[in-house]
Design a protein that fits this description.
Chain lengths: 110, 689
């Protein structure tokens, strides 16, 4: 799993690629924690390059989202496709967390 | 202990079997000694040959010198003797001596030269006194003193004799062949004949011959007494090749060098003889006919007398020095070799001694005796380094084994704890099938195959409310011990909440319309159960773990099922005679993630023969060695293919199929399934309650 990010307006966009499973998901949490400490509270995770996500990956996402929320920020998602989109739907994460079809939509929210 | 003993035996057995060859000390000694031996032999051979060559050259020179010296000694005596008659010849040529003067002169000659036995002055026929054919006064030593006589008569015509004829014709000094003069004391004699002349220039002609009978016993004694080494000898031959002296008995005067060569069929000797009588001088290698030994023959002429001297030196005696030298050097070399052998062996053993002790210690260590004492190596060499390195290895090995033992103990403790935890975890899952003895309205079977000792999957079923039966399946995020804890909490909470909701429903239902049958039969709402359980789990959930749950409540009298899903995989509905289908879900979130979530409750009615298959993602995400997933399509296809059977058969067939699909690939997630088959409401079951 690779995380690369850039500041876009009020948001920090994090592009996540590869596989997010028990071995790698801690990296996502660490990345978000790092952003939070750097002052970026509003993060958009672009998962269009993500091939697979396990329940451990979901746990990391949940953990990061809770931390950002507690700090007054939020964590949104965009670009879900294939099995990742399915996992988000089945697990109900699509209902728990803000999910947008495209990055533009995610950046356009208030 | 038994392992350590086994290792020890194995080590010592292995130790003796390791080396069939010789040790380093032996090899080192053998190598050094071979090299030294080869060098020594080469040096000895070279020394022997060089010394032999030098000594032979020297010996040759000596032989030549000795022969030459002998020739000179002989010549020193022979040359003056031949001058004596020559001097008388000159006087006779002058013609100043009268007959009495000749006799006087002859007497004086005998007195002056003890070797001369007799002397004659023989004149040509009618050369001294006209009318007198024979005139040859002869003075000689008689037993009673010197006397004289006249030679020549009709009976003794000396002009035809060899002693007169040969020098007269040759016009030079001639020594006769040797002879024994029996009248003159039986001594070895040779006559030296010298011609004298009359007239000058063209007129010069031979007037007569002066002779001197010379005793050559001294020559014979001299040559015979020459010592040539131990078995060498000297000999003389005349100008005809006749032996004058020879160490072998009966050879002198009886044989010539040519007869001897003929007798022994020795052409080499004949060639030597020919060269000798020609006056040649040479050193040749030959084998003595007298002693049979090989050696050097030096021959040289005696110019005065025309004879030839041979000196034979046996080779073995010439080489005796060389052989002695070789023997001494071999003795010295052999002694040196022995000393080097002893020294090498001692040094090699000195070097390998510590190594051997180290090897003993190494065997002990290899046998498991880690505290074996290492030998003290006092030298500061490689062996010392090796001993130090070995000591370090022994210490690290001890530390490592101590660490390993501790780590193994810890791991075994953890393994044991995990095993117990696994037993506890599996123990809390209900395993009574069929779940409600005496109720044949439905049939239920469940199985859980953990991927590790403990896992996060669970299932549960219990009676819930009036004629209600709650069954559920869950999957906690993550794996291992944390998941196991969370699973235990989730399952307990879900059961407590379900029973609590059931109780509340009963009370609520009892209050407004106590008589209404429909209300009395109301069942707990799975959505409510999940909502309350979610709130309980989400509270203080620092770890952000969550659980997916499918929870359903069956009214077994009617076949009606109410169900709700918290982010769980949609179960498969098997309708009798129809294709399997997934239950539609609403995408409600997982439980434990956020509090205050609502869960939608759906309902359906099972007809007799219909079944519900609940499973976790361990089934659909089971992987084979080619990294293919079992998948949802395969799941429905397999379920459609199974022959209609009871819950247990479906469950076991499915588990077998998943196992066969995995084909030995490592199971990465718990595989859990629960099958409920509805048989139809029993007519008497409602009356029972």
């Amino acid at each position: 799993m690779e995380c690369t990010g850039s500041k876009q307006g009020a948001f920090y966009v994090l592009e996540v690629t590869g596989r997010m499973d028990a071995l790698t998901s801690q990296g996502f949490e660490t990345e978000c924690q790092g952003r939070l400490e750097a002052g970026d509270k509003r993060i958009v995770a672009d998962l269009s390059g993500l091939e697979y996500i396990s329940s451990a990956g979901l746990r990391s996402i949940l953990s990061a989202a809770k931390r950002l929320k507690a700090a007054g920020g939020d964590l949104a998602f965009c670009g879900l496709s294939g099995i990742v989109s399915e996992v988000f739907t089945v697990s109900g994460f699509a209902k728990l967390l803000p999910v947008y079809a495209t990055r533009e939509e995610a950046l356009a929210r208030s | 202990m038994s392992g350590s003993n086994g290792g020890n035996n194995g080590g010592s057995n292995g130790g003796t079997a390791i080396r069939a060859g010789r040790g380093i000390a032996f090899r080192l000694s053998a190598l050094v000694l071979t090299a030294v031996g080869v060098i020594f032999v080469a040096m000895s051979v070279a020394t022997y040959h060089l010394a032999r060559e030098a000594l032979l050259k020297n010996a040759e020179q000596n032989a030549r010198t000795q022969a030459q010296a002998l020739v000179q000694r002989i010549e020193a005596r022979l040359a003056p003797i031949s001058r004596v008659p020559l001097a008388l010849g000159y006087e006779l040529s002058d013609g100043l001596l009268d007959d009495a003067g000749i006799l006087r002169r002859q007497r004086q000659m005998l007195l002056d030269n003890p070797e001369i036995f007799g002397t004659a002055a023989a004149f040509e026929p009618f050369g001294r006194h006209p009318g007198q054919e024979y005139f040859a006064p002869y003075t000689f030593r008689a037993p009673l003193g010197i006397t004289h006589t006249q030679l020549g008569s009709a009976a003794y015509r000396y002009h035809a004799m060899d002693w007169y004829q040969i020098p007269r014709e040759l016009k030079e000094i001639v020594w006769s062949e040797p002879y024994y003069d029996e009248g003159g004391g039986n001594t070895l004699m040779s006559t030296c004949s010298v011609p004298f002349y009359k007239g000058q220039g063209e007129e010069r002609r031979v007037a007569g011959v002066v002779t001197a009978d010379v005793s050559l016993d001294w020559l014979k004694r001299l040559v015979a007494s020459v010592n040539v080494l131990d078995t060498g000898y000297a000999w003389l031959i005349t100008r005809n090749g006749t032996y004058v002296t020879h160490p072998a008995q009966g050879v002198a005067f009886n044989e010539s060098i040519f007869s001897r060569a003929e007798e022994h069929n020795d052409p080499e000797l004949r060639r030597i003889g020919q060269d000798m009588i020609r006056g040649g001088s040479k050193l040749v290698e030959s084998t003595s006919l007298h002693t049979g030994k090989p050696g050097f023959l030096v021959y040289a002429p005696l110019p005065s007398i025309g004879w030839s001297l041979g000196v034979f030196s046996p080779r073995d005696e010439l080489l005796a020095d060389v052989n002695r030298l070789a023997l001494v050097s071999a003795g010295l070399g052999g002694g040196g070799f022995l000393i080097i052998a002893l020294l090498t062996a001692a040094i090699a053993r000195g070097i390998t001694g510590p190594l051997r002790r180290l090897r003993g210690a190494a065997r002990e260590v290899a046998g498991g005796h880690l505290d074996a004492a290492l030998p003290e190596v006092t030298s500061r060499d490689e062996v010392h380094d090796l001993a130090m390195a070995f000591g370090n290895m022994q210490r690290s090995l001890k530390e490592h084994i101590r660490d390993l033992t501790a780590a193994t103990a810890t791991r075994e403790r953890i393994q044991s704890e995990l095993r117990i935890a696994s037993e506890i975890q599996l123990g809390i899952l209900p395993k009574t099938f069929p779940p409600l003895p005496g109720h044949t309205e439905f049939d239920l079977y469940a199985s859980l195959t953990p991927a590790r000792e403990v896992g996060g999957d669970f299932y549960d079923f219990f009676p819930c409310g009036h004629d209600g039966f709650c069954f559920l399946i869950g999957d906690v995020s993550g794996k291992g011990v944390p998941a196991a804890f969370y699973m235990a909490v989730s399952r307990t909470l879900l059961k407590a909440v379900a029973e609590s909701v059931a109780g509340a429903g009963r009370r609520r239902g009892a209050d407004p319309n106590g008589a209404a049958g429909a209300q009395r039969r109301s069942l707990p709402d799975p959505g409510r159960i999940l909502a309350r359980a979610n709130n309980g789990l989400a509270e203080d959930n620092e770890s952000c773990m969550f659980v997916t749950v499918f929870c359903a409540v069956l009214d077994y009298t009617t076949g009606e099922v109410h169900y709700a899903s918290a982010g769980h995989n949609p179960p498969v509905l098997l309708r009798a005679g129809a294709a399997p289908e997934y239950l539609p879900t609403h995408g409600d979130p997982v439980a434990g993630a956020m509090p205050g979530v609502e869960f939608t409750t759906d309902s359906l009615v099972l007809n007799p023969g219909d079944a519900l298959v609940l499973y976790t993602d361990g089934v659909t995400e089971a992987m084979n060695p080619a990294l293919e997933l079992y998948g949802e399509e395969r799941l429905t296809a397999r379920l459609a293919a199974f022959e209609a059977g009871d819950a247990r058969t479906i469950c076991e067939d499915l588990a077998k199929d998943v196992h066969a699909f995995a084909d030995g690939a490592e199971q990465s997630d718990d595989i859990t399934m629960l099958v409920l088959r509805y048989n139809g409401g029993a007519p008497d079951s409602a009356d029972k309650t």
